[in-house]
């Protein structure tokens, strides 16, 4: 039985009933409510919740007072009494008033999808930057809802929804919370400046950067570990990775790139979380190449891909060169694999298949490579000869009178930086 530990005096067993309201608006989005509910179950279990039951309701629009209909509220109360539930988790975001009304009617802790995701992030944050970002997101979410979380915050034993900033902070008045938000933003600004300095150093060093992006639990961290032997935390759960991790990846012909594993995306990623983590998420903008890792075995594969592309669009990174890696092919049915797109820009892989890992490095080389050109370098210009080895892979070298001829497969990014020094030495056909 899962026990969730928090910064309170006692431990609490979160025993929850999940609630899904399917409105006309949700139907128009094209998202399968059942698959979304399955994801909510995963989120709850990731947070250490014991899921007891699931309630569903179809309704044209949400009830302004209860979110679900009054009859469904009574059904939820009876189910909670019968099963011994102490928590209800809703698959959509609730207003502060709706939380308050439901708490009073049900005498349960009321959590929505957004708060659940924030809670998971709070449990995952390890670096100073991550902790600041999560607390900022939690307080920004909480501030307009303070009046709706009275019972939730005073309930003994903590549990989901009370992780992170701590009850003593959350029960202070709005002014104190606003002051705390201001202080967190100041601290985050300092961290962002430091991160920008690191980015600038990487730019000046000419390091080629490749970013792993994808839906949560698609296998990004596993790929990073398999490709680079990185010592990273890997677990079959949502948001196992929160803080970005970068490692050097050795490519064929002795080339190196910096491979970065980023936080996983999810549908309806809380706005406050995106805002707080923007500096971290924007690491992808520094990448020369994006590897979009997809769980090929997921029934929500296309929806998850769409979510990732939408967030990349919001971050201004949708135009980056991208390779889609359909991961977990080893657990896919043959018909699933046949339905996957193929051709340039797509690979069907398993992170545990050494041959597939080799294919990934080869595709990275090909994607980063530019044209293959021949350069005629004067024999006394060793500086230019050395530069050619930095901007690409020297395929062939020969000597002609006082010159050295180099046949080079260029790296697009590197050659772009140094072409002003080398362009005049290109041999014309």
From TrEMBL:
Pfam families the UniProt entry points to:
GTP-bdg_M (PF16360), GTP-bdg_N (PF13167), MMR_HSR1 (PF01926)
Keyword Nucleus assigned to the entry: answer is no
Coiled-coil ranges (or none): 167-201
**Any idea which UniProt keywords this protein has?**
Coiled coil, Cytoplasm, GTP-binding, Magnesium, Metal-binding, Nucleotide-binding
* Compartment list: Cytoplasm
Q: Which domain of life is it from?
A: Bacteria
**PANTHER family according to UniProt:** GTP-BINDING PROTEIN 6-RELATED, GTP-BINDING PROTEIN HFLX
Function statement:
GTPase that associates with the 50S ribosomal subunit and may have a role during protein synthesis or ribosome biogenesis.
**Family membership noted in the UniProt record:** Belongs to the TRAFAC class OBG-HflX-like GTPase superfamily. HflX GTPase family.
- Subunit arrangement? Monomer. Associates with the 50S ribosomal subunit.
Name of the protein in question = GTPase HflX
| Species of origin | Paenibacillus helianthi
- Give me the gene this protein comes from: hflX
């Amino acid at each position: 039985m899962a026990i969730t530990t928090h910064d309170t005096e006692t431990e609490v067993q979160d025993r929850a009933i999940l609630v899904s309201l399917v409105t006309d608006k949700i139907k128009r989005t094209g998202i399968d409510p059942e698959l979304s509910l399955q994801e909510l179950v995963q989120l709850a279990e990731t947070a250490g919740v014991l899921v007891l039951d699931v309630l569903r309701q179809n309704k044209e629009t949400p009830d302004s007072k209860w979110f679900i209909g009054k009859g469904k509220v009574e059904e939820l109360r009876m189910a909670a009494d019968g099963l011994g539930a102490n928590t209800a988790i809703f698959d959509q975001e609730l207003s502060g008033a709706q939380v308050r009304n439901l708490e009073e009617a049900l005498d349960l802790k009321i959590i929505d999808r957004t708060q659940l995701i924030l809670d998971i992030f709070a449990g995952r944050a390890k670096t100073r930057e991550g902790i600041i970002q999560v607390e900022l997101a939690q307080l920004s979410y909480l501030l307009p809802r303070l009046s709706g979380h009275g019972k939730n915050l005073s309930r003994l034993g903590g549990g989901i929804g009370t992780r992170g900033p701590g009850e003593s902070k959350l029960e202070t008045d709005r002014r104190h919370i606003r002051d705390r938000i201001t202080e967190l933003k100041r601290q985050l600004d300092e961290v962002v400046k430091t991160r920008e300095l690191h980015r600038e150093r990487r730019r000046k060093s000419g390091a080629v950067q490749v970013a792993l992006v994808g839906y949560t639990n698609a296998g990004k961290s596993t790929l990073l570990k398999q490709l680079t032997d990185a010592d990273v935390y890997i677990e079959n759960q949502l948001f196992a990775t929160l803080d970005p991790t970068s490692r050097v990846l050795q490519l064929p012909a002795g080339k190196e790139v910096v491979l970065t594993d980023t936080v996983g995306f999810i549908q309806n990623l809380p706005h406050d979380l995106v805002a707080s983590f923007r500096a971290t998420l924007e690491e992808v903008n520094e990448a020369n190449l994006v590897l979009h890792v997809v769980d090929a075995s997921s029934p929500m594969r296309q929806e998850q891909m769409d979510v990732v592309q939408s967030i990349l669009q919001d971050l201004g990174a949708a135009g980056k060169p991208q390779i889609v890696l359909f991961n977990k092919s080893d657990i896919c049915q043959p018909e699933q694999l046949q339905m996957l797109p193929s051709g340039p820009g797509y690979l069907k892989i398993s992170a545990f298949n050494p041959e597939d890992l080799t294919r990934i490095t080869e595709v990275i080389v090909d994607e980063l490579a530019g044209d293959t050109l021949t350069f005629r370098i004067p024999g006394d210009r060793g500086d230019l000869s050395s530069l050619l080895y930095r901007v690409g892979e020297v395929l062939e070298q020969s000597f002609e009178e006082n010159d050295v001829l180099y046949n080079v497969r260029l790296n697009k990014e590197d050659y772009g930086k140094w072409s002003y020094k080398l362009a005049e030495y290109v041999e014309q056909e």
